[in-house]
Amino acid sequence: MNPRYLLAASLFLTACGGGGGGSGDSAGSAIPTAPASVAASCQQQAVIGAAANDGLRIARVSWLQVIDQLADDQAMLVAEKATRLRVDVVADSLRNAPARRELRIQDPATGECTLLSMNGTSRVPTRVDETTLANSFVVDIPPTLMKSGTRFSLLFDDASGRSETESALVKRSLAPRITAAVRETLYVVPVSLGGRTGYAPGDSAQLAGLLTRLHPVSAVNIIQTAPFTPSGILSAAATALGNGLNFNGTLSDMQSLLNAVDDYCQTLAQGNRAALSPKCLGVFPDQLLFRPAGSTNSLYTGLAFVGGITMVTQSFNRVDVMSVSSPYLSSHWIDDRALTVAHEYGHLLDLDHAACGGATGTDPRLYGDGRLNAGSGFDAVRGVFFSAAGRTSEFADLMSYCGKEWTSDRGYLASLNYRSGARVASRETGGSANWVKLTPTETGWRLTPVAFPPATLETSDAMVTLHSASGAEDMAPQQAVISDSTEPENRPLYLNFGAREMTQLVIHAHGKRREQRWTPMDWLRTGG
Ligand SMILES: [Zn+2]
User: Which pTM value belongs to this model?
Assistant: First the structure.
């Protein structure tokens, strides 16, 4: 068993903000509609002649952008992102590929037309085989031509043409929904303890490619930070690592690390929404191991806030496993530690788990068996296409703990809705939001002012009494959802105290009767 799959058990209701998956109801006004018609300059000029009587026709058109989406009303794509158009043309009998295999791309702003030739098979088959591109026509669309409102038109024909009726079957106009480009900023934060420091590939393009090939983001700006030494936690680990030893930490220790990196990440945050703010990846040193209680061979390898901005994972030094030359070999063509980063980033895109391999905290928007629904995947970095049809136990959702993982179509569309800003949770729009993060520590609670909470929060059993000029008021803070974690005790709480002039907080949480008072001086001391 892959140790990551032991990551274990989270709980939770997914995504409080997570209702409505897919592309249907939530596309909203952020998705511009395409113009109503193809400009004259971009119209296909079919040759009308004698009937060819060969049955040549376009049988299937789909977009390969991470996943394979039929080119219909449900499809949703991201601008400025590597996209391959797939066209399956069939005929009544096996024949040579038609000479004209034209794709015209019409710029929505200028109307300018770009003509590309479709490549692929030299033979036209008699039926569509969705599991391979070998019999299809394909073209890689330059990301700069993928814009909201871009229109596409296709024509396949022989030079001699065909009858009017037949010609209608070899033409197709496409006006897909394309969201604005999604540009992510990711700070890579090497965690340093006892002189040991975490690491990630120094090649930013490699790191960016890990996320763009699996998620609905167009580009990732990678920023490496100086080593980050968490203070006030993991002191025993620092001592052990300083003495050249490994340290076996608990899940609770790992959550403390996540909380500390998240406090740091909040100082880099921008705007008032987690979805659109820069994100942080804390990579911890190899000598720091987090294990389930009593285990000597299982590891927790990654942790993240669902709908938050911070994840922590094991260090890694590569993304691609170049020796794996096919997606159908038994091991993944992406390094397992890198895949963990992509999985945790999925949590930052507000996804919870797909139910496979013991993953809990399942996201109802994903497939019930945690797999890919026999769908296909396209890795734009490796140029690799695969189909899970007939191989349903071989591939699984990136958000599961099973099998070779890829993004499911449901996960892709749900995270695209979240990240593209089409969905705005009501709590993110309020007027005077003043959020404070309450982090449990060994000695009490750490109070940190934050620009925003994670997009997904859940109710907790904690109560807070807030004192202000207008008196004492009981309030219920909400709790972060940390994927892969079964320990609610160590998760931070979030409280929006709005416009109140807070003078003191008393917190009762987790049945521990733990209370702590704050004054404005404490606030200043914690950097507020
Ligand atoms: Zn997870």
Answer: 0.90
Determine the average pLDDT of the residues in 102-129. 95
Ligand 1 center–CA 362 separation, angstroms: 10
Distance 130 CA to ligand 1 centre (A): 30
User: 119-165, pLDDT tens digit by residue?
Assistant: 999 999 999 999 999 999 999 999 999 999 999 999 999 999 999 99
The packing angle between helices 336-348 and 204-212, to 10°, is: 60
CATH 2.70.50 fits 35-175, yes or no: yes
471 contact partners, CB below 8 Å, separation of at least 6: none
| Residue found under tokens 């249907």 | 24
Characterize the bridge pairing of strands 76-78 and 177-179. Answer: parallel
360 to each of 12, 254, 398, 485, how far by Cα in Å?
8, 19, 14, 10
Residue 305: is its pLDDT beyond 80?
Answer: yes
Name the region of 294 (left: φ>0; alpha: ψ -120 to 50; beta: rest).
left
Alpha helices in 182-243 (DSSP H): 204-212, 235-242
Domain 3-24+181-419 has CATH 3.50.20: no
Distance from Cα 472 to the centre of ligand 1, integer Å: 39
Write the DSSP string, 163-190. -HHHHHTTEEEE--EEEPP-EEEEEEEE
Kind of pairing, strands 404-406 and 395-397? parallel
Q: What is the total residue count of the chain? A: 528
Phi, psi torsion values for 252, nearest 5 degrees:
-65, -40
Of the candidates 149, 143, 142, the residue with the CA atom closest to the CA atom of residue 108: 149
Contact 507, 464 (CB under 8 A): yes
pLDDT for 198 equals 98
Instruction: Fill in the DSSP letter of residue 98.
Output: P
Query: If you measure from the C-alpha of residue 144 to the centroid of ligand 1, how many angstroms do you get, rounded to a whole number?
Result: 33
- Is residue 77 classed as helix, strand or coil in its secondary structure? strand
- Distance from the alpha carbon of residue 353 to the mean position of ligand 1, in angstroms: 6
Is pLDDT larger for residue 396 or for residue 442?
396
Per-residue confidence (pLDDT) for residue 523, from 0 to 100: 60
How far apart, in whole angstroms, are the C-alpha atoms of residue 423 and residue 442?
A: 37
CA angle 103, 106, 108 (to 5 degrees): 155
How are the residues of the chain apportioned to helix, strand and coil, as percentages rounded to the nearest 5?
15, 30, 50
| Distance from the alpha carbon of residue 253 to the mean position of ligand 1, in angstroms | 17
